Amino acid sequence: MSAKGKTRRSAAWFGSLDVHGFLYRSWMRNQGLPDHAFDGRPVIGICNTFSELTPCNAHLRGLAEHVKRGVWEAGGVPLEFPVMSLGETLVRPTAMMYRNLVSMDVEETIRANPIDGVVLMAGCDKTTPALVMGAASCDLPAILLSGGPMLNGKFRGTDIGSGTDLIRFATELRAGNMSREDFLSAEAAMSRSAGHCNVMGTASTMANLMEAMGLTLSGNGSLPAVDSRRKVLAHMTGRRIVEMVEEDLRLSAILTRDAFLNAVVANAALGGSTNAVVHLLAIAGRAGVDFTLDDWDRYARHVPTLVDLKPAGRFLMEDFCYAGGIAPVLDALGDRIRRNATTVSGRPLGALVEGAANYNRDVIRPLDNPVVADGGIAVLRGNLAPRGAVVKTAAATPALMRHRGRAVAFESYDDYRRRCDAPDLEIDETCIIVVKNCGPKGYPGMPELGNVALPKRILKKGVRDMVRISDARMSGTAYGTVVLHTSPEAADGGPLAVVRDGDWIALDVGARTLHLEVDDESLRRRLAGWTPPDLSSLSGYDRLYRTHVMSADQGADFDFLRGCRGAAVPKPGH
């Protein structure tokens, strides 16, 4: 029995003196579990995304041992289980295609087994939202533990950051300004320790937003993977999940509308990834929270970017940790943060961040000296994006935030690769690059291709940014004036599908508009002539995905996974 007198879920497996109880206990004993493991203690699942195919998460196997110590110490029984792991670095066509599949793995594994509470161990981009989505669908006590960022990369006396400097080096290589030898030397110097990306990319963004939302213990967002304090955090996470089970503190008490609005504000202050948009929309859909794309724009407006980290700034995650992490950022935001929001600690968020020290005001800027005065993610609407598109203002070129240009349209990413450097391509730096069919259904999976490289002829002029529009995503490590997540996507019959070379497009981020300068009747005729893609030859997960995935403005989740299904004990199978 729990402290509140409720029978634990695990008792349905281990609590009976009959053939079922004998069977379950006997088989578990072959792992060396003692008698007192079955005396009614909370059974804690440790959901681990460890995989050597996911470099960001390859150290989680060892970190799990520290979680277990904390669980045993607090009187629980830790049982580690694997779920499909997703590494943005290796998985094709994109890890995003399998985020929803991992969430199903997590949800059904929790529901099918004698688990009273769960520790979610994540790292690389998609593992964090996938695990939280799956756990939210069950609504048991749950707590997240991230693997932590890598140490700063070091290249010839300079700190270099994951992805961001790769894009910079690759651009200079294409422009003829960097040698092949230097490029390969930088490659070996960038990823020099265990952990996920060391810039404010999607992995670090999500780890920090989970802390801002109250789903982790303090320090989760910034402690480096190899810092011994990350192991202590793992130990304390193990202790705390046992207490949460005793308190019956469930995810639904933490994943409130206030928590999501705190994440929107925190993301703006962090200069965080646009990928957070689709992930938080998907999590909210599972939790049944009223939270939409419009909330991203409304609550991020006029929030200054305070954290001077790449790709929007200068520093890296190791510097952010030593400066104090996210706590002083949240404290500095004052009443923009909903301080009464519940956290896994059992204390309100405000009590955790009140008076948090900022040890480096170059890394974490004060309100009167921000990196960007209005750094939130902007949501654009217009006849080119009826259901919305997003742009990361903190990473964009100010001079391009209001721009009118001639469209150079590519039907797909393959079409772009074939033609971007063709000598007969009519393009200059004033044009707007449009890449279609890179959304959830179109690619499939909505890959991180939105910040396509500029044509070589443009780079050789010294130009490093142009307006680019697509239905794709962009890596959180990337930068540029890139309009993303255009909805409806091209493969779903959105207006993006019928943009033609020579059309004029007007972007005005300040006014939140994205307009294709084609009259309504002509646009209707074009859309009437559009032919949807034929999915009849598809099979397996590809077919399931393309048939059921929703648009980016709804989080690109599966339509049949919306809502919380709970964790009622299933019928026995013996």
Task: Show the helix and strand layout.
Elements: H1 11-14, H2 19-29, E1 43-48, H3 60-73, E2 77-82, H4 99-112, E3 117-122, H5 127-138, E4 142-146, E5 153-155, E6 158-160, H6 164-175, H7 180-190, H8 202-212, H9 228-247, H10 251-254, H11 257-270, H12 275-287, H13 293-300, H14 317-323, H15 326-332, H16 349-353, E7 377-382, E8 385-392, E9 402-410, H17 413-419, E10 432-435, H18 456-459, E11 468-470, E12 482-487, E13 504-508, E14 513-516, H19 520-528, H20 540-548
Parallel strand pairs: 1-2, 1-3, 3-4, 9-10, 10-11, 11-12
Antiparallel strand pairs: 5-6, 7-8, 8-12, 9-13, 13-14
Helix pairs in contact: 3-9, 4-5, 5-12, 6-7, 8-11, 11-13
What would you note in describing this structure?
By secondary structure, the chain is α/β, with parallel strands linked by helices. The chain is built from 20 helices and 14 strands. The protein has helices at 11-14, 19-29, 60-73, 99-112, 127-138, 164-175, 180-190, 202-212, 228-247, 251-254, 257-270, 275-287, 293-300, 317-323, 326-332, 349-353, 413-419, 456-459, 520-528, 540-548; strands spanning 43-48, 77-82, 117-122, 142-146, 153-155, 158-160, 377-382, 385-392, 402-410, 432-435, 468-470, 482-487, 504-508, 513-516. An eight-stranded mixed sheet has the order 7-8-12-11-10-9-13-14. α6 runs antiparallel to α7 (180-190). The longest helix has 20 residues, at 228-247.
